[in-house]
């Protein structure tokens, strides 16, 4: 079995199809090398070795890979013409992790490996650059100490021993920047760093390059089970046994002087999807300098540089002098890079995120991967590539992450509100969208506010969890490729980065800008599309859905066979849903219509009534209100089917529970306070979710069903009179026995007949039921004999199948998720294994007696992509979800077919 795969010099043992084995990075390096991209030579230790290591331990794994690794190092030495550990002509290497999917900042990297007190002298001689050699050496000890020897600070109160030593020396020398250190300073730092290692770990810093290499390799394997990696894995649902590969590669240096540089670039704009090559670089720097946000990077293209200068309010003269683009200062290398970016995008047929280094005038491509992007960019890029003929329609559809559409559907700032908004500063538009929220300064405190704006000098991988919780991210330092920017785009979260005008004081928890001091909890707003930072709250509006988004939606229609409907309770929701392309309403929860202030009174009177006559009187008041709601919804849907569900919730939800409101009701109804209190007590239930609700209401108080059926039929007739078509589907909730359904059906049919006679006119309607009680799924063949359609209410079905109260599960679900008892919240993602069986069985049994039975789903799961696929697979006719999830469900529905 091969455990080590070599690459370099335009050949490779592996290729891009081997991501699971070589990790994303390793597979890409192999592929790039094979297609003629100049990657520094190296090798990849497979992810299987990581799993072997976790099972068998270090000694046994070391035996298995030792010889292969030694041969692979010899191969690099051959290609580079240098020797690992040699005092005169040393080969230095990097060691990086690489899981099968990109996990930004999660795993550890060691650079400059192979240096020691003797090699550093050789390196200095060879490059004729003492400063560079010693700087590399001190960086190596710092990284190796942190990553391999465990000297990284554990919390924000903990100090980084290396940083502390550097700060000390800067103070002593009266300097501010790392670049101001003299060679002697760097030599002192190396000495002090090694001393710190000895003090902290009790061991000398390893001087043998081979010891260094093995230490780094196993540290990478260990980092797979580190806290950050585990959190990221859990967040994305990646299993632990994927493991990570280790990539070992020859070092090339961007910090060898003014003829060297390093940078990051994207073949298209990761924020908007625009087809423009863009990126950032720094002259005389190492890779991490670009993303660390310590120096503000310059733009790669002239166009990008000019755009940046405009935002940063830098005059053209100053731009050319201080921040010229790579295109302007190294035109030949730029054009070479430009060729490679075109070649790579064509080869991978997707937007690429590349890292490159120029070492003393020679360009090396360090890595390329499919770039992270916002939802908007995802749509635009896929549609553009499809139009260009690079990918097929099907591929364009399959590539989209349905949940990412969410970002496009969410509000942006109201243009009018923006006119009066006070802009306090501007940063880079790192990740588009609008966010309004309250300032927090530490990631682990983001939970403090419902809408938190995480405000940092810069972010690091430790901040991931807080970034995920926050509504928006603001940083004072760092470019478009800084950690904050890249991660925020991946999360689809609004982010403004590199707002240099911000003065952040962590200790005092203040943000000073534009002559004003902000404190924790103060409101600010971020515009991730312009980079504007605004004082206070700003109103937002719904986004416009045109262009590529509309084209994508068109495309979904071409492939999707299962319809998407919406859950909508008001004419307005129905309109929103139609605009998003809903093919009907799958659930109108009529109880939501009673909660409005002017209606709840009539509802309460109905409930308080002791006699059928009293109830009917109150219901007569409710009838016109319901009828006009239905007219509005039917009209908005203009002939598309609308499923109206009869009253579902327990009655106690409608009666007043506070003394003052009870008094008001007593007064209004001219009854005693005691009578009100008695009724409230009477309605009190131990377990209302399993109590007097659903069709149990309609069966005990048939007059409620009568009124609702009348309102629905009359509304349809009224519209018909106006020439507007409607297709009401009347749905009976919470059915468990066929008799429950039959009784309700009879009431509805009798009422409809009566109304038809009164009006001397007719409309078509159907009567179906929700399947949301396990017994109903079991009895589906009997129920289907009477019902025209089924709609799976997976909220209740999940509740009753698991036996988890919908209203109380919040108390234990987080612990269950943390302990791995459940992988996901079953109220969010359909439990296909368990609850899914009931759905499949219910559908099959139902269709066994009524082959043409229409079947849909209207629980929250109807808008969750995986659940949508499940519904398609078992043959549902439609899914129904909240209006804003309709596009997501449409995409998921199309993907399910492909
Ligand atoms: C359901 O139970 O899935 C459902 C759609 O109904 P509700 O959420 O109103 O109980
Ligand atoms: Mg329900």
From TrEMBL:
Keyword Glycoprotein attributed: no
Q: Does the record bear Metal-binding in its keywords?
A: yes
Picking any one GO molecular function of the record gives: pyruvate, phosphate dikinase activity
Q: Where is the PEP-utilising enzyme C-terminal domain?
A: 546-895
Reaction it catalyzes? pyruvate + phosphate + ATP = phosphoenolpyruvate + AMP + diphosphate + H(+)
The record's section on Gene3D superfamilies has: 1.20.80.30, ATP-grasp fold, A domain, ATP-grasp fold, B domain, Phosphoenolpyruvate-binding domains, Phosphohistidine domain, Pyruvate Phosphate Dikinase, domain 2
Q: Where is the Pyruvate phosphate dikinase AMP/ATP-binding domain?
A: 20-53, 63-387
Please report the stretch or stretches of sequence annotated as the PEP-utilising enzyme mobile domain. Answer: 450-531
Q: Keywords of this protein's UniProt record, alphabetized?
A: ATP-binding, Kinase, Magnesium, Metal-binding, Nucleotide-binding, Pyruvate, Transferase
Q: Which InterPro entries match?
A: ATP_grasp_subdomain_1, PEP-util_enz_mobile_dom, PEP_util_AS, PEP_util_C, PEP_util_CS, Phosphohistidine_dom_sf, PPDK_AMP/ATP-bd, Pyruvate_phosphate_dikinase
Name the needed cofactors. Mg(2+)
EC number(s) per entry: 2.7.9.1
**What family does this belong to?**
Belongs to the PEP-utilizing enzyme family.
Provide the function of this protein: Catalyzes the reversible phosphorylation of pyruvate and phosphate.
Record-linked NCBIfam families: pyru_phos_dikin
Q: What is this protein called?
A: Pyruvate, phosphate dikinase
Could you tell me which species this protein originates from?
Gilvirhabdus luticola
